[in-house]
Amino acid sequence: MAELLRLLLRVAEKAANVARVCRQEALLFQLLVQEKTGDDKNKKFVQDFKTLADVVIQEMIRHDVGAQFPEMADFIHGEESNKFENGLGESVIVTVCGTEEETAALLATVLDGDRTAASLLARAIHQNPATTDASTEALTVPLSPSELGIWIDPIDATSQYIEGREEVLEEGHLFPSGLHCALVLIGVYLRSTGEPVMGVINQPFNYKDPSNGRWKGKHFWGVSCGNINICSLSRPKCGSEKGGGLSAVLSSSEKQVVKESLTSLCGPEKLMYASGAGYKILCVIQGLADVYVLSEGSTFKWDSCAPHALLRALGGGVVDLSKSLQSASEAQEGQAELTYHQSQTECKGADRWANQGGLVAYRDCSQLHSILTALKGKLL
């Protein structure tokens, strides 16, 4: 299990490097932000390079994990399809090849023959950053890779990644938008129960080095399995422990009734807004907010699996909001924890993996109870 965690930390850093390269290399950045029109409109790859960047990261993680743990290869799921059509109408399956040259050649067919862009991207894919975390060395968890599955969100908060607004992060502060909201999320779950047992979050744009203008990232990880609960972050103090009231982070598009109910509970100064589902849960993990509430089914398993594992390691969790509101008593609330092994068979496409009942991410059960009490009868 420690070996798997170290691998996921390494591939998450590789993914972060790809995300940074796509913004820092002028040629790739132009592809990232431009929108084709007219005769070029049907050239899906160049028009939607952001999707290619997502897929490249996803397939790189799938390749590296599958190579080291082949028994997991069929249980590595991602947000994106890796099948595309280039400007010549050719169908191309994007994969990571054995060598940098082979990957570059494949990507060139995707990018309508742009070998320079393909080579830049392939070089980032095949680099092996040295990512070590001494605290993972002694980790022992009685789980086999054959019991596990993985959810990948290659770039969560893609719109913030593309827009690229640069905010300077300040300790103890939540920022509503910007490059820092874009995260690489890798979550591991038990195939038998769907419980999230390990999560890795990489924030590629955490700090900009003033000496060279290059971005540096930050990683977070957690393991929650039985009596073993370990996180790279210590448990932050709750609002009540800090002498303040409950604080919540929401999407700016949240329902008005939720905003009003939580304003009454928390106070207007304790109600905050931010972009990206993964980032909002990370804010709860870091203690920048006590809870994240979402009433819509607009997040997916790949958004929540990784940060859910970190919250479990800290004594919290992520519940289905709708199911929790329907529970008869507080004692039943734990039964509504999100799981990651079963699809909604009545739905199609990505909606099969949606967190359809909304969610509440929390660090403390008493805070979860306060949220559910405030919303009881308001959404049903």
List the helices and strands and how they pair.
Layout: H1 2-24, H2 26-33, H3 44-47, H4 49-68, E1 76-78, E2 83-85, E3 91-93, H5 100-110, H6 115-126, E4 148-156, H7 158-163, E5 183-190, E6 196-208, E7 215-225, E8 228-231, E9 248-250, H8 256-266, E10 271-273, H9 277-286, E11 291-294, H10 301-313, E12 317-320, H11 321-326, E13 359-362, H12 365-375
Helix pairs in contact: 1-2, 1-4, 1-6, 5-6, 8-12, 9-10
Describe this structure in words.
- It is built from 12 helices and 13 strands.
- It has helices at residues 2-24, 26-33, 44-47, 49-68, 100-110, 115-126, 158-163, 256-266, 277-286, 301-313, 321-326, 365-375, and strands spanning 76-78, 83-85, 91-93, 148-156, 183-190, 196-208, 215-225, 228-231, 248-250, 271-273, 291-294, 317-320, 359-362.
- A hairpin with a 2-residue loop joins strand 7 (215-225) and strand 8.
- The protein is globular.
- The strands form 3 sheets. A 6-stranded mixed β-sheet has the order 1-4-5-6-7-8, sandwiched between helices.
- Helix 5 packs across helix 6.
- The longest helix is centred in the first third of the chain and has 23 residues, at 2-24.
- By secondary structure, it is of the alpha+beta class.
- The chain starts with a helix and ends in a 5-residue tail after the last helix.
Concise overview:
By secondary structure, this protein is α+β, with helices and mostly antiparallel strands. 36% of the residues lie in helices and 19% in strands. It contains 12 helices and 13 strands.
